[in-house]
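Can anyone check this?
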Amino acid sequence: MSVLNGKVVVITGASSGIGESTARLLASLGAHVVIGARRVERLESLASDIQGDGGSVVIQQLDVTELEQMQAIIGAAQSRFGRVDAIINNAGVMPLSSLEALKIEEWNRMIDVNIRGVLHGIATGLPVMKKQGFGHFINIASIGAYDVTPTAAVYCATKYAVRAITDGLRQETVGLGIRVTLVSPGVTESELAESITDNQAREFMKEYRRNALPATAIARAIVYALEQPVHVDVSELVIKPAM
């Protein structure tokens, strides 16, 4: 039996990609997954699959930029299961463009989802975990948190921010029984690139994503961090294609 059996894990951005794959894997290991995303119909389909395989799942419509909605999904987990063992702050957007394209609305959207969304997850989950005396935050960044590429300046800036926030959270929760992990995927199969409206960035990304990891590879890395003994904190995982 997996050590994750019976654990309560909240996952944002769970309607596709890494979030979806992680929900499926955790549920198969016996975890109670509480999944949120804006696309409720996708969540319902995912929940049907999980339940059909005997898994435990709760769905909640979630826009991570709205603090009240983040509070609602954490509340749903507490109400149903009495605790929250882990929060996976996974929701993100990636409408890449050159700075000179001046796609300011897209810049703001990335800042709101990629940074504010993670902060909302922390703001909602931290008091719960402190009161419990245990918990685990897993924040999803990117290799863009370590290196900047053309057309990705703002996106990478948001992921650098997630990396900094995660490191600060780790330092501030030492001795509280709360673990903090940063997971930084390399190029991964997902729907992120579909939000790119800039033609130059779209063409660049087509080439860049030719050798992409399956989302299941990132899900396995997340499970690895969650499965470690309570006295072990996996601080950072960077996952890249081997070829």
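Reply from J.R.: I decoded it. Helices lie at 17-28, 40-52, 67-81, 104-132, 153-172, 199-208, 215-227.
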